[in-house]
Each structure stands twice: as structure tokens, then as C-alpha cells.
Amino acid sequence: MNIIIFGPNGSGKGTQSAVIREKYGIPHIESGAIFRENISKGTELGKKAKQYIDRGELVPDDITIPMILNRLKQDDCKNGWLLDGFPRNPKQAEELVKALEKEGMKVDVVVEIVLDRETAKKRIMGRRICVNDNSHPNNIYIDEIKPNGDRCRICGGKLIVRSDDQDEKAIDKRHEIYYDEKNGTMAAINFFKELSKKKGIPKIIEIDGKPPVEEVTRELLSKLESV
């Protein structure tokens, strides 16, 4: 099963991606990791991408999409893949679909974790990191995982606050791109929804991101199993 997952920062997308990866035994492919790998290995595409990144410019789609395709054609993707972080706008979505079709591939499922902007922002700013184990969930704005004061709810370890989680300008900038229904990520999601109406694929799965993590997971797996 080939899946693209969408969700704003703060929606729990990383947590649910890990669930999908484990359940279906498919690799979780993050666009940022693809860039880092190509640059660190000094591939031709990586060298081209680095030139743009060093200038503080966006890497063009004609470099990004071939990088992604190269990754999706690797052996561990034969039984499916989970793509995260791309596309981020409708043009990228359209070009990605075309490129996949040329390679005889398609997107089977698009998962959208739906969460309003205010809640997403509060969840980011409410995150607290356990120094003993950063996989221990603690968030001052989520009742189910509220820490015990300034201590981890699971192990009692000291909690710290990531500086980027408190950078409201950076959070707002990322969310402006995501929630933009004309030129941003929401527009890319809408592209797939229209494609689904016309062709029947990809299957669109919308998940409410507000309930506790376990409930979100149950709904997600239930809907995936019905595909």
C-alpha cells in the first residue's frame, strides 16, 4: 500500500506514521531525510539541492521529485511506502502524480489528520521533553498526557522545553503554509480529493486529530483496514 500522510505540525502525524509503519511493515519516508541523505552522500541531485539550500532558496521540484522517486524505487519500498512532508502545494501534488505514473506507481491512500490551527499551535507550545526518554509523551495542554508538575508523567524525569516549540513566529509560518487552501498544503490535499472523485483513487481517509492518541490510532487503523 502506497500512502501519503498529511497533518499540520502538532497534529500527531509523526506518532501515527510510526503506527502505520509498524502495522504494515513499510518504510516511513520523510522528504527532509531524503534531502539530508542525498547531500551527505554527495549524489548529483544532492549537490544541486545543496546549492539552492546554501543560498536560502527552495529546492526546485525538478530536483526534489526525482530524489523522492529514487527513494521510492528502493527495495524496501516494494511492498509499499508512507510518504511524509511532500507535496506541500498543488503544483507539487500534480507533478508527483505524473512522475509516479511514468514509473508505473500510484498513490493508493491519502491520510489527512484534521486539526484546527489554534489547537495545533497549543499542542506544539505545550510539548515537554523528558530528559530520560524523549518518547515519553508529556503536554501541558492535553489532559491525557499532562505531566506531573515539572516531572515526566511516566518516569518522573526532569522535563525540558524545546526552544523551537516556543517560537511562535516559526510555528505561525509553518502553519500559514499548511493551512493555505489556495497555494499551500491544504490545496495539495484538495487536489488529491478531486482526483479521488474523478478516478476513484487515491482513497481519502480523514481522521479527527483532536481525540486522545489511542482513539486517533484506532480510527486510523480501522479505516485503513477497510481500504
Fold topology:
Elements: E1 2-6, H1 13-24, E2 28-30, H2 31-41, H3 44-54, H4 61-72, E3 81-84, H5 90-102, E4 109-114, H6 117-126, E5 129-130, E6 159-160, H7 168-179, H8 185-199, E7 203-208, H9 213-225
Parallel strand pairs: 1-3, 1-4, 2-3, 4-7
Antiparallel strand pairs: 5-6
Helix pairs in contact: 1-9, 2-3, 2-4, 3-4, 4-5, 5-8, 6-7
Give keywords:
227 residues; alpha/beta; five-stranded parallel β-sheet; 48% helix; Rossmann fold; two-stranded antiparallel ribbon; single chain
Quick take:
With 227 residues, the chain is of the alpha/beta class. It has helices at 13-24, 31-41, 44-54, 61-72, 90-102, 117-126, 168-179, 185-199, 213-225; strands at 2-6, 28-30, 81-84, 109-114, 129-130, 159-160, 203-208. The protein contains 9 helices and 7 strands.
Describe this structure in words.
The chain has 9 helices and 7 strands. It is of the alpha/beta class and 227 residues long. It has a single domain, classed as 3-Layer(aba) Sandwich (Rossmann fold), CATH 3.40.50. The strands form 2 sheets. The chain has a 5-stranded parallel sheet with strand order 2-3-1-4-7, with helices on both faces. A two-stranded antiparallel sheet has the order 5-6. Helix 5 packs across helix 8. It is globular. The chain starts with a strand and ends with a helix. The model has no long low-confidence stretch (mean pLDDT 94).
